[in-house]
What we know:
The chain is mainly alpha-helical. The protein has 9 helices and no strands.
Amino acid sequence: MSIGEISDQIPDFAKDVRLNFSSMVADETLREPTRYGLFLACAVATRNRQMMLGFETLAATKLTPEAIEAAKAVASVMAMSNIYYRFVHLASNKQYRTMPARLRMSLIGNPGVDKADCELWSLAVSAINGCAACIDAHEKALQAANVAASTIQTAVRFAAIIQSVAVAIESGRV
C-alpha cells in the first residue's frame, strides 16, 4: 500500500485530516532518516495495518534495513514501557515508583540509529500512547542532546496526524 492509497482511504468527513496528512508527507523540516523512522514508528504505534504497510513501504525507499528495524523496535518497546510507566505515574500507591521495572529496554541505550532520532521516535510514540512520564523522560533526553523545541514539536505534530489518519480510516469503515 502506498502513501497515496492511504490518503485515498481517508473519508470525506475527515478532510482536515487528509490535508494535514498531505502537508506532513511533503514536510522536509526533519532530516530524512529522522522523518521516515518517525513515520514508521508512529504508524506501528497506531496498530493500523494499512498505516504500517504504507509507511514501511515508504521507509524501505529511504532507510536502511537496520533503521527500519529500529523504528519498529521503538514502537514495540514503547508499547511496553508506556503502559508500565503510565501505571506507575497514575497509581495512587507511590510504592510502585520505588520498585525496579524489570523490563528489558536495551534498545534505548543502543538503538542502532542516531540516539537523538531514537529518543524523538520514542517521544512521538509515547505521545500516541499517552504516557506523561515517558514523554517527560524523552523530552528531557532530547533537550540534553540540544534538539530544538521546534523539532520536538514537529515530531509530536506528525504523531498526532498519523494517529488521526488511522482513526479516520477505521471510523470510515464503521
